[in-house]
Every structure is written in structure tokens, then in C-alpha cells.
Amino acid sequence: MAGVYRNFTPEQLQAQYSARAAVPEHPQIFKRWQESSARYRAQVRCTLDLAYGSSPREKLDLFLPERDHAPILLFIHGGYWQAMDKSFFSFLASPLVDHGVAVAIMNYDLCPDVTLDTIARQARGAVAWLWAEGKGHGLDRDRLHVAGHSAGGQLTAMMMATRWNELPGDIPADVITSGLSISGLFELEPLIHTAINEPLGLDLESARRNSPLLMEPATHAPLVLAVGGSESEEFHRQSRALSQAWGARGVPTSMLEVPGLNHFTMVEQLAEPDSLLFSRAMMLLTRQPN
Questions:
Q1: Is-contact 106 86, C-beta < 8 A?
Q2: Counting Cβ atoms within 10 Å, is residue 198 exposed (0-12), middle (13-18) or buried (19+)?
Q3: What is the pLDDT of residues 167-209, one digit of tens each?
Q4: pTM to 2 decimals?
Q5: CB 199 within 8 A of CB 141
Q6: Which one in 29, 36, 114, 120 has a CA-CA gap of 20 to 30 Å to 290?
């Protein structure tokens, strides 16, 4: 069969982008996340299910350090915009909170109930809520950072391409202090040719509209693009391509490729204080806004 995208056949694209198929032990990994997260929520200072919008899933969990005036990290989960839940990822907050960072982990509506355009709007809503309400929770809204995994990596970049000063709410153009995308997707056209797209319903126009690689960044805040060494070449290519494209437009971008890690063990590194990913995250989170 002839190639449909970058000389890949649909079957080859499915193999490149199907992260779960590439990691057969993913059910055990997800179970570990759920159990670790439930234990963490039971032990720490947190406020769950804060509504940032009107949809039942427009909620976030807030994990607070002992200090006031803490920087904020908004974490956006993955799941190809069609699966997962914020409750799987509470465990990621543990070492960050211990290092004085407030962590907000958001939910959003899932495809096929909504489109990717709606999900991006909801992510903007979570950022806007943290800007408007963060001070009331003892947070430093002038140090608002965004991180995401997989689909959440795409949404992280979408937040950095948002022209905030053109939206309601008096949000400053430089509201995002930094971005961290873990195993992100930034050009969505190849997904059209895979089974992943069945609940997404992307056509060429909507895929391009939601592809940060094709957008002008709206910030000069730094962006770290992290990928596990065992992930497919397309995941590596996507991060390299965004690094090059946005770097050429004035965004301080850097790549972090960690050998031996797959799509799911890579994001776990954010909960490991001795890991390269955690170290890079803390460099961003301790950065003072311009």
C-alpha cells in the first residue's frame, strides 16, 4: 500500500502512534498510577474537584505546599483526548509539592462527546481560573507554568500559542511562565489515517487547526520537550520539529530524550526527584517571570 503521510502506510502510522500497543504492560502501569494517586490524596493537603467551568468534567484538583505564594504548575493528562482522568495523576504532585510548588491537575471533556477545539477551550478555562482565583488559594499567579503528557503535551503547546490578552478576563499576554511537554503531539494530520481518529473525528482542517507545529507561538517563555528513548520515531520527530520551528521564532526550546523509557514510564519520571525530567522541571518552576 502506498504511503498516506510521510511515506507511512496507515498500518505503519497506527504502529507509530499507538502508545498502548507498544507497551503491553500498560494496564499494570495504569493500576500503579491509580493506587499511588489514591494513597497520596489520602495523606496530603489538597482540594479536589474545584470547578473552573460549567461542564461536570471542568474540574481540577489542587495540591498545596506548606508555603504561601507558591508557583503553580497546571498538569494536563493524556489519553488521546478520549480517555483517562485526573485521578490517575495525583502521584505526580508529591515531590513537586515537597519542593514548594502548588500543583493543579485538570480534567476536561473527552472525545467523541466533544471536539478537540472544545478541549483546548477548556484548558484555556483552567488557566484563566488559576489566574483569577489562584491568589485566593495562596498561590503566585505570576508564576503559572503548564505541563502535559501526550495529548496534554499538545494542549500545553496550545496554551503557549494562545493570545491571552485578546480573550476576556484581563489575562496578561505572558501569563504562561514556562511549558513542559512530555511525549507530546504537535502535528495531528497523521492521526487522521489511524483508528485513533475514530472518536476524534478530525479532518484535515480541524487537524491543522489543532496542530501547534503550524501555529505561531504567542510567548517567549521557555519550553522543554521531553521524550522517552523507547518511544517511536514519530514521537521523537514531533518534539524535534516543534523545538526547531518555535526555537526559530524566539521561544527558548530544549529537548530531553531519556534512554530506556517508554511513553508511560517517561511521565512517571516527574515523580522521581533524582530524575533528569524532575530536575529540568524544577529549573523551569524556579524561574522568575520576565
A1: yes
A2: exposed
A3: 988 999 999 999 999 999 999 999 999 999 999 999 999 999 9
A4: 0.97
A5: no
A6: 120
